[in-house]
Amino acid sequence: MPQLAPVNWLFLFILFWFVVTLGATLIWWSFKSNYSIPSSTSTQSIPRTNLWSW
Which keywords does this Swiss-Prot/TrEMBL entry list (predicted)? Predict the structure, then answer.
């Protein structure tokens, strides 16, 4: 184990939990259900393609 200054250990601790939180957020965001209100019949005549998964 390398001997680092306490500031570097604090930086590594914060960086580790930031990466863990970011990864968990991205996984949650990719599996999130999309809830939307059905659009009216007048706007359904225009075909739309959803190119984005979110």
Answer: Membrane, Mitochondrion, Transmembrane, Transmembrane helix
- How far from chain centre, in Å, is Cα 10? 25
- The pair phi, psi for residue 49, each rounded to 5°, is -110, 135
Provide mean pLDDT across the span 17-21.
98
Quick one: average pLDDT of 16-41? Answer: 84
Identify whether the C-beta of residue 54 lies closer than 8 Å to the C-beta of residue 28: no
Could you tell me what percentage of the chain is helix, strand and coil, using 3-state DSSP and rounding each to the nearest 5?
Answer: 45, 0, 55
Residues 26 and 46: beta-carbon distance below 8 Å:
no
